[in-house]
Amino acid sequence: xxxxxxxxxxxxxxxxxxxxxxxxxxxxxxxxxxxxxxxxxxxxxxxxxxxxxxxxxxxxxxxxxxxxxxxxxxxxxxxxxxxxxxxxxxxxxxxxxxxxxxxxxxxxxxxxxxxxxxxxxxxxxxxxxxxxxxxxxxxxxxxxxxxxxxxxxxxxxxxxxxxxxxxxxxxxxx
Length: 174
What we know:
It is a single chain. This protein is an alpha+beta fold. It contains 4 helices and 10 strands; from the N terminus they run ββββαβββααβββα. The protein has a single domain, classed as M1 Pyruvate Kinase, Domain 3 (Beta Barrel), CATH 2.40.33. The mean pLDDT is about 90. It holds the Pfam family MOSC. This is MOSC domain-containing protein. GO terms for molecular function: catalytic activity; molybdenum ion binding; pyridoxal phosphate binding.
């Protein structure tokens, strides 16, 4: 349970923990040991895993926020790939698995509850530092630390930054 929102108890699986070991199995709808508490809005085939650029944490860690890796509920922290660089539909090889970028993450009130500051929702929208969801095209064992390699890209597909901006109807920068 995440806490109370008004008179309702809020269930969430946003709190993630670092995986020990060298490999983990990526299933069609999540990583082994992961779960989603709100299947109407999280998880499922198109939101099997949530990836978030580790580079964004330096921008978030200001006087207003002090966030550690995993604060956004991401399953995977990535380096070297930002929202303007990643396209919806990109296919990446990750160990034995293949994943496909499906959509940008849209912040919800549970993120604000989790970090203890509801302003983070508007700040994520304003900054465009959203991360993205991926679907699993091929399940398999994946390294806990290691490269994801771009296998296929449609250069006509929108970037994650462009898709996020379309959702919120204004230009963003990541």
